Amino acid sequence: MNKDLNGIKNHKYKSCIIGFQGVEGSFSHQALIEYFGEERDTLAFGKFQDVFEAIENNKINYGVLPIENSSTGGIAEVYDLLYKYGFYIVGEKCVKVDHNLIGIKGSSIHDLKEVYSHEQGFLQCREYLDKHEKWTLIPYFNTARSAKLIHDENVKHKGCIASKKAAELYGLEILESHIHYNKNNITRFIIISKLKEVTRNCDKISVILSLPHKAGSLYKALRHFEENNCNMLKIESRPIVGKSWEYLFYIDFHGNLNEKSIIKLINDIEQESLYFKLLGNYKGEVS
């Protein structure tokens, strides 16, 4: 039996430090506040990997990271880092993402020559940006830091794509609102930790596995969901570095580790796998 199936624990987040990628006003910071509450000790980091390293070095207890967007799909770097560091997912939070074109006070769309944002911001607004081909799109750390940059440089020809909150925070002007093409644009954030946390109301499980590189191996693994009457929510594949055309599979499904059928399902899948890890059992917001 997988050792990760043992020990149902409940942590109350009483005294902890929480890390996120970005700055105040970012969607990651919003997800942190909505999940943990306002009165928390937090640390901001420039890159996704910085958050993982801070957990590894015991500088923070939890990290808040985007894992999937309803418009652009999974965020590959975060999936890869979950595998690299082997941390647990202990929760998730969904945030409605509203992108706006932003500039300094007194500027207009006609002044713009350069637009800054995170790559995801550009992707989620691509239909709007296609109408403004003369703009130079410059990828930046995240949407909120893009807003801070525009504030600091204070020139009319530079703008950014960011949230209304970021515009307010840095004293900027919204030049055009709601420029994302999917009006139901939602990003799912995960809460990660070194420690596994499972409570009796958890209803979502995430695992990562690799399978033999032969015909039928994926089918043999997935058939156990039907055999154990379990609903699979998502499957995402990522290439295994150093093994061309072989993949890791990240799977989310309904369940709680207190359920005998779930324990059987996990053991059945693990027996089919070359590599298997339970990433977490937590309360889901996406079903």
From TrEMBL:
This is Prephenate dehydratase. The keyword Calcium does not apply. The record marks 187 as: Essential for prephenate dehydratase activity. The keyword Lyase applies. Keywords: Amino-acid biosynthesis, Aromatic amino acid biosynthesis, Lyase, Phenylalanine biosynthesis. Its EC number is 4.2.1.51. PROSITE patterns: ACT, PREPHENATE_DEHYDR_3. It is an enzyme of class 4 (lyase). Pathway: Amino-acid biosynthesis; L-phenylalanine biosynthesis; phenylpyruvate from prephenate: step 1/1. One of its GO terms (cellular component) is cytoplasm. Residues 206-283 form the ACT domain. One of its GO terms (biological process) is L-phenylalanine biosynthetic process. Residues 17-194 form the Prephenate dehydratase domain. GO terms for molecular function: prephenate dehydratase activity. InterPro entries: ACT-like_dom_sf (IPR045865), ACT_dom (IPR002912), Chor_mutase/pphenate_deHydtase (IPR008242), Preph_deHydtase (IPR001086). It catalyses: prephenate + H(+) = 3-phenylpyruvate + CO2 + H2O. PANTHER family: PREPHENATE DEHYDRATASE P PROTEIN (PTHR21022), PREPHENATE DEHYDRATASE-RELATED (PTHR21022:SF19). It comes from Clostridium cadaveris.
